[in-house]
Amino acid sequence: MNVALVTPRYPPTHAGGGEISARLLAEQLSARNWIDDVTVYAFDGDTTETVGGVTVHRLGAVPQYPYTLPNELAYRRLRSRELDADLLHAYNMHLHPTVGRLAAERGLPSVATLNAYPLIDWADIEVTPSLQRRLYEHTVLRVERPRLKRQMRNVDVFLPLSGAVERVYREHGFADADFEVVPNMIDPTFDVPAREPADADRIRLLYVGYLRDSKGVRFLVDAIERLPSQYTLTVVGGGPEQQNLIERASDGGAAERITFTGQVPYEEVAQAYADADVFVHPGVWPEPFGRTILEAMQAGLPVVATAVGGPAETVPQSKLLCDPGDPDALRESIEYAAANRERIGSENERTVRQEYHPDAVVPRFRRVYERVLDRYE
């Protein structure tokens, strides 16, 4: 079986967890004896290279907005190539219409991972849109959305990262589509330095991720003020809300216990997990998954998250899930996690090895691929 993976960006070009997940998928597929070849087609350069044993064709950069333009450019560049593929797999959302259109024209089986909501108005999923995004939604996207969705519907099977993603798409124009939930997988090579022994006089909380309104970090900042003085918080990541969060912390009573590192290289994030006792993911929107949650669990940390979106399906301890936007609920879950951190951390390490290791996740892709290919025989 030859698989062509189509994605806007591919490592070493890196923008976030989506690129990491695309690389893991390509490399793990190429290592399986039931796969003959995996070829990646990305749109972030003008080279052909081998990355981690996988051939990557970078077919020139395409803009992100408006969606019609990158999809038209990507479609034309892919159409001009002879794709030696038995199946197309679209990843990282923005070019899913391209893959649906090309698959229909060439009679190729296709699947698409759903890990974001680019064609849905953000206010519908509890994300506060920027002025630019709001104007785009009310003008260009309103016009182009029907055609892009029609092209997406040519995809045979959609692979949402969580049941939460599937529900959102069913409610926004894909009620009758074929869905199969396949989560992200852990990176077996992700190596966390040895952690220091637990210190009863100090509880170190950690958040890793982009800082925008929907991430709910403001409620975590508020929760710190409600926690005893031995609790500290490190916020790793940058984004449009960073300065607002710094000011919010300064206005409160716990500024000296909160550290904002800004964005750091991905290679340095592992040390942040090693230096923490509890990981907190306080999102207020139906986040598709949350790779940082997997990494924290892999590092042996308890994870406190809100009971919304994919994270609520990943965190195995119900007492560590709380209502979004509620600092008091966060405080209670954080205190429970801290008091039981050794036991819960061990549980999390076992969970990710059993449920999210490539050996558990990749066979789920195989079953979907073979089911789709059977339709074309």
TrEMBL record:
Extract the Pfam families matched here.
Answer: Glyco_transf_4, Glycos_transf_1
Task: Answer whether the UniProt record assigns the keyword Acetylation to this protein.
Answer: no
Organism superkingdom: Archaea
List each copy of the Glycosyltransferase subfamily 4-like N-terminal domain by range: 16-189
Which keywords fit this entry according to its UniProt record?
Transferase
Identify the residues that the record assigns to the Glycosyl transferase family domain, covering every copy. 196-342
Keyword Acetylation included in the entry's annotation:
no
Gene Ontology terms, MF aspect:
glycosyltransferase activity
InterPro entries of this UniProt entry?
Glyco_trans_1, Glyco_trans_4-like_N, Glycosyltransferase_grp1
Report the protein name in the record: Glycosyltransferase family 1 protein
Q: Which organism is it from?
A: Haloplanus rubicundus
